[in-house]
C-alpha cells in the first residue's frame, strides 16, 4: 500500500527489513515460510550480499566450514571446498534470492538515515538519505555488525599521497604489481590478504601491533562424489553439518573459558608457529602474550610462510604517523610506499546504533548505547517496541558459526512479528526489568571468559565493556532463543 504526501509517497508494509545480507534475506525467507508476505527490504547497495559483497579482497574466505556457515533451511550440496572463498559465498547468497524468489521484496540504493516509532499508530517510520519514506508494523535491523568500515585514526593519514585501500572496500582496478605496499593490521582479514599480496607486489611491509593466535586449518577441495551424495541424500549433508557443529561446540571449552583444553589449543598454535617459522626472533615477534580466545583466533596455513618470503618484512614497532610518502614508526624510520592497505576491521556497533533510532517518547538508541549496548536476548530493546535486531548486543560467537546463532534470531523474530500481526498489537515492548536482569547475568558470565581476561580487542569498548560476545555454548544460545516468553513483554492492544 502507498500513501501520498506532499514530500514523498509513504510505502507501507507489515515488516520492514533493513539490509539485504545474510540476516535480512534469511529474515525474509523465514517470514515467507510463516505466511507473512507484505515485506519490504531496504538495501543501501546495488546488490545483495552485505559483508560478503563488500569484502572481496584477495584471499577473502570464511574461517568456518561452508557446510556449517550456511542456513540449514537453504543447504548447498555443491560447496567447492571445506572453507569457501568470498565469491562462492556471495553466489550462495544470490542463489537464496533466486530460490526463494526474494527479488520483488528488495529495493536497492535505499540508505536508511533514521527510523522512528509512532506510538499512537504502532508503526515504525523510516526515512532514507534521499527523503524516501516507509512505514511498517514491525522493523528488523539487519544491517549487520560488520557493515561499516573506516580508516584508522592515525596522525597524518590525510597527508599521505599514495594509494589507500581498506580491506572492505577493495579497489580491484588498482594494479599492485611492481609496487611497494604496506599492510596495516594482522587480524582475520590481513592474514588472508598478505599471502596473496606477497605474490603480486615488489615488496610488502606488514605492520603488526599485536600478534594473534594462529591455528592451522584443513581446507580440502570437495570431490564430485561428495557433492553427488549430498544432492542425492540431503540427510548425509545434515549429518555432516551436525558433526561440524559438535566439533566447534567442543572448541568453546578452549576458547571461551580457561580450561585444560585452553592449554592444548595454545600448544597446538605454538607447534604450528614452530613448524612454520624456524627463525627464533621472528617466532618471538609472532608469539602472543595473552590467553588464546581473548582476541579472535586466526585460522590459516599460509600467513607465516608469506611473512618469510624474501620480498616481505614484518615490523612490530608502533606507528607514530603517516607522512606524504609513507609511514613513520616509533624508532624514527620513515617507510615509503606506493600503496597502504588498511586491514583494520570494522566499526562494530557496540557503543552506538547504525543510524538514528527513535523509540518511545523520543528516546534515542544511540544515546542509550553510549554507556554500552544492551538488549534482551540480543534481539529486543526496552522502549523500542516492534523492533528486532539481528546480531544485536552479546550475540557474537567465539567458536561456532555465526549463521547458527542467526537462524535462532530469525525464528525468534518471526514469533514476535506473528504476535504483533495476529493479535493486532500497537506495541510489543520488552520489559525494562527483564532486559536488566538478562544483562546482569550476561555480564556476570562474561567476567569469567577469556574475552574479558585483559587483552584489548574489538569485542570490548574502550572502557572494557563487552557488548559483543555471548558467554556460552551455541546450544545454550539456541535454547534461549527457542523460548518466546510473553510475560517478559508489555503488550499494547490496538483500539
From TrEMBL:
It comes from the Bacteria. GO terms for molecular function: monooxygenase activity. Keywords: Monooxygenase, Oxidoreductase. InterPro entries: FAD-bind_Monooxygenase_sf, FAD/NAD-bd_sf. The keyword Cell division does not apply. It holds the Pfam family Pyr_redox_3. PANTHER family: FAD_NAD(P)-BINDING DOMAIN-CONTAINING PROTEIN-RELATED, L-ORNITHINE N(5)-MONOOXYGENASE-RELATED. This is 4-hydroxyacetophenone monooxygenase. It comes from Ketobacter alkanivorans.
